[in-house]
Design brief:
By secondary structure, the protein is mainly alpha-helical. Helix content is 61%, strand content 0%. It has 4 helices and no strands. α3 packs across α4. The chain is globular, with a radius of gyration of 14 Å.
Length: 69
């Protein structure tokens, strides 16, 4: 159903509720309540075409920032 939703939901609407892009702080801020609630495993999904860049970003910045929570 992704294609159906993509036709009626704008990128701006998605970005208001889901952290998108390479900015570290919005991602960490969205994960923190789950960590505070006791979750020990979360799935972070990169839906864009550049998986390698996301993996590098995770290894370099995002992973260390999340482990610090």
């Amino acid at each position: 159903h992704f294609q159906s939703f993509a036709q009626v939901v704008s990128e701006e609407e998605v970005a208001r509720t889901i952290p998108c892009g390479p900015r570290l702080e919005p991602i960490v801020r969205s994960v923190k309540p789950w960590v505070d609630a006791g979750f020990t495993e979360l799935a972070l999904v990169q839906v864009g075409p550049d998986q390698a860049a996301f993996c590098e970003f995770y290894a370099r910045e995002l992973g260390p920032a999340l482990r610090a929570l």
